[in-house]
Design a protein that fits this description.
Length: about 300
């Protein structure tokens, strides 16, 4: 029997945000700028003692990074967890995570890129709503809209709505489903593992960076041939930075889903682009290509009224 969906508590100014480094080490200056943005918005920031650890291209050993994340979930003084950087390493901590502890201590978890592995797995294993949004190191250089969207997503009790800044309809239609997705490469790397995500009945979103068009075609082909796209309700495309021309990317996507009569809407400011809006993973939403919108049916968080 599937567990009911769990929404984390909304965060308010004065609350504490814990910082995790589950993937690669990061630039200290960019990190400090991002922390400054959070503090300017009124939040307290808690930095674990081993946050700046390094082990080659990772921010510490797999066990250390997993333990750090679990401790942040279990820390009652912390209301939300933001990841410092992506890069690589999130999938390597999955075998060491205590998913029961995470579900017992539901909190906001925010990140993107390599952090996709954590977001989709924690949603699948714990039925906890997670958040595809900016990293601490990207907050300091991002536009104000990125920060505002983050605060709206993790602090508001109103349903969210997104509209592409440059909408492109690849296939018209309307559909509803729980939203899931993230970095296309990271998702494909989970296939064939115990953490392989399931997308049937979902609205699926993709974004990526630095992948040539033929690689995007290869990844979508892998998803299709493996049956991982069976039963999906719709497709949402975020940014594809340094992936060749958008026209080529969109043509590949349109070809990949030519056998499916599902809505496909591109142009959302999600991912590695200049703006990176915060999108809840796990919540039900309605995709409508006619008015160019992704509208969630309920708030992503709840307010504690006790």
């Amino acid at each position: 029997m599937e567990q009911p969906l769990v929404k984390p508590q909304a965060i308010c100014p004065g609350d504490t945000i814990g910082i995790a480094a589950p993937a690669s080490p990061f630039d200290r200056e960019a990190f400090e700028r991002g922390v400054g943005v959070l503090e300017s918005a009124g939040y307290r920031v808690k930095i674990p003692d081993n946050l700046f650890s390094r082990k080659g291209y990772l921010a510490g050993s797999d066990i250390e990074r997993a333990s750090q994340l679990i401790k942040l979930f279990e820390d009652e003084s912390i209301k939300a967890i933001l990841c410092a950087r992506g890069g690589f390493g999130s999938m390597k901590v999955l075998p060491s995570l205590d998913f029961e502890a995470i579900r017992a201590n539901p909190k906001i978890l925010v990140g993107f890129s390599d952090i996709t592995a954590l977001l989709v797995t924690i949603y699948a294993r714990c039925q906890l709503v997670t958040f595809h949004g900016p990293l601490v190191t990207s907050l300091g250089t991002g536009p104000e809209k990125t920060c505002t969207a983050l605060i709206d997503a993790i602090g508001s009790t109103l349903p969210l709505e997104f509209k592409p800044s440059q909408p492109v309809v690849l296939n018209p239609g309307r559909a509803s489903g729980h939203v899931v997705g993230g970095n296309l490469t990271s998702i494909c790397h989970l296939l064939g593992t115990p953490y392989e995500p399931r997308f049937d009945g979902h609205l699926l979103f993709f974004e990526d960076r630095g992948e040539a068009p033929y690689r995007i075609d290869r990844m979508l082909s892998q998803l299709y041939l493996g049956g991982h796209l069976d039963g999906i309700a719709g497709i949402i495309l975020g940014s594809f930075q340094e992936c060749g021309s958008l026209e080529d990317v969109y043509a590949i996507v349109k070809e990949a889903f030519r056998y499916m009569d599902i809505p496909i809407l591109a142009g959302f400011d999600i991912g590695h682009g200049t703006e990176n809006l915060t999108v809840p993973i796990g919540l039900e939403a309605h995709l409508d290509t006619e008015n160019g919108s992704l509208r969630f049916q309920e708030p992503a968080t709840y307010k504690d009224t006790s």
